[in-house]
Amino acid sequence: MNNEFETIIGLEIHVQLNTQSKAFCRDTNVFGLPPNSQVGVVSLAHPGTLPYPNKEQIFSAIKLGLAIGSKINKTSTFDRKNYFYADLPKGYQITQDKTPICVGGQIPIRVGDQTKLIQIHHIHMEEDAGKSIHDQDSAHSLIDINRAGTPLLEIVTEPDLRSGEEVDALMSAIRQLVRYLDISDGNMEQGSMRCDCNISIRPKGQTTLGHRCEVKNLNSMRFAKKAIQYEVQRQISLTQKGESIRQQTLNFNPQTGRTTPIRTKEDAHDYRYFPEPDIPPIVVSQPKIEALKSALPKLPWDYEQAFRSYGLSQKDSVLLAQDLDMAEYYDAFVSAYGQAVAFANLLINQIRPTLSGKIGDYPVSQKYLAEFLELIHDRAINKSLAIKQLLPKMLAQPMVSPKELVKAFSQEKDHHSDQLAEIISNIIAAHPDKVKAYQNGKKGLLGFFMGEVMKQTRGQADPGLAKKGLLDLLDG
């Protein structure tokens, strides 16, 4: 990257909502159904049909705005945005231009060890277009209208981002946030989240923004990073040659790694915005806003801060706060039983990797997991054996207290101890030359004897007991 120039990036992030119906009609809003199976007279723009707002889209927008500290406009309006959409039958999009529902706000992102606040210009509601399919017929483009009318929130940032890494961090933060709020699944691979990147450069030290180019519909962070890297280099090269940068809308081709022009970048007047005549202003009462605010969950950055105060590392705090269910589960355990660091290690290293569903479905109760940690802390059982043998027994018998399981386990352990003593005696007897060498000062041979014990017990011997048994005979 050329050190003479600064990269300036602003994002327009589109989030598809998980409402049951579309934005302005009752067509179902489900991903993956057969093409053109979720359409009706309104989404097909039949003459005489009228749109009507989806209140859940409005409430979702308010929740997101409240979460990031936006000002909520109690009265907001819809507008028509006009240009040719091959896959939106109306030929225009219902969106918000003059009075979006949320204004301002900020989202913290973390890149490496640095935290940065990204300022949000506004959030507005709109509808998605359908999908044009160009690779299934050599002579025709196919149109799937299922997505047309899907409720969207568009989050428009200030030009605060400076790299592909920051874009990745912001998109990840928003995906995590909309999942916390349960307003979207945030799956970029299914198109539930995608972004348009507005990219420009300027000489370092200057404050005036340069001409921006917009790369459309990036639905993969890997592609977004590549598109930004290519576009920045393209703009720097043009500038160094003395050529001007044209304000354009661009497409990114993942196969070639290049951006190519789609059209000259439109300004607002090109869209011929005007108020949507068929939808009156949306008015939301202050009591409703307060009710939505009080129902918000604790947010990811709040959990991360709380977990750091419990003594966890930044890495572990971020990991446990990634998912709301996991964060709530961990926080509830620590509030009830303490053992914050020990339980975090158990959760991250032993429980989380085995989950096939949500953490709430884990069969062992938090009470019994607390008992499990107490047994290790009180040295009633070796930690290695507890994890390798006791925890699987708890999963097999989740209604039985680990203390009860340990009683049976201890009897079994005594039996194994007798067997272990016999195995150690046989190993010592079988290697008199190595015993003599050990007793003459080659203490490193203890590793050889430990290896023999583990080999003959198939790795099941308690390492502490095995070492003690060997030393008793070798040093005796």
Can you give a write-up of this model?
- The chain is α+β, with helices and mostly antiparallel strands and about 475 residues long.
- The protein has 3 domains: about 5-290, no CATH class; about 295-405, no CATH class; about 410-475, Orthogonal Bundle (Arc Repressor Mutant, subunit A), CATH 1.10.10.410.
- The chain has 14 helices and 17 strands.
- It has helices spanning about 55-65, 165-180, 220-240, 285-295, 300-310, 315-320, 325-335, 340-350, 365-375, 385-395, 400-430, 430-440, 445-455, 465-475, and strands at about 5-15, 70, 75, 80, 90-95, 100-105, 105-110, 115-125, 130-135, 140-145, 150-155, 195-205, 215-220, 250-255, 260-265, 275, 280-285.
- The strands form 4 sheets. Strands 1, 2, 6, 7, 8, 11, 12, 13, 14 and 15 form a 10-stranded mixed β-sheet that branches. A 3-stranded antiparallel β-sheet has the order 5-4-16, with no helix packed on it. Strands 3-17 form a two-stranded antiparallel sheet.
- A hairpin with a 2-residue loop joins strand 7 and strand 8 (about 115-125).
- Helix 7 runs antiparallel to helix 8.
- The longest helix has 29 residues, at about 400-430.
- The termini are far apart.
